[in-house]
Write a structure and sequence with these properties.
Layout lengths: L10 H7 L7 E5 L5 H9 L5 E6 L2 H10 L4 E4 L13 H14 L1 E3 L1
Parallel strand pairs: 1-2, 2-3
Antiparallel strand pairs: 1-4
Length: 106
């Protein structure tokens, strides 16, 4: 599988992660190929339990190929809020809002 390089992770998220306790459970919402998940796993090996959620199975497969320690979950979060009649524009806005949350510490 050819895996395209990822954009750099958010410097803010990487900086904040240094304050999160060891063993913290993180959820990467709308993770895509794991720009943030894989960067956190590489920067803080064995420190976090990371779950990456996305609706794109190919993106999750690429994420898993980058870092097998991250748990992935194939799920369409948009379907929780809207019916199948939603236009792309609305769906994109929701995805952008969800993506801005990026990682939630639970």
């Amino acid at each position: 599988m050819d895996i395209a390089p990822l954009s750099p992770p958010s410097s803010w998220i990487m900086q904040q992660a240094s304050n999160w306790p060891a063993g913290a459970r993180l959820i990467d919402i709308a993770s895509g190929q794991g720009r943030h998940s894989t960067a956190l796993a590489a920067a803080y090996p064995d420190r976090f339990d990371i779950l990456a959620v996305d609706r794109d199975q190919a993106a999750l497969a690429a994420l898993k190929a980058r870092c097998s320690d991250i748990t992935t979950c194939h799920f369409d979060l948009v379907s929780l809020f809207f019916s199948s009649s939603v236009t792309f524009g609305t769906e994109h806005v929701l995805s952008s809002v969800m993506y801005s949350l990026v990682l939630i510490q639970i």
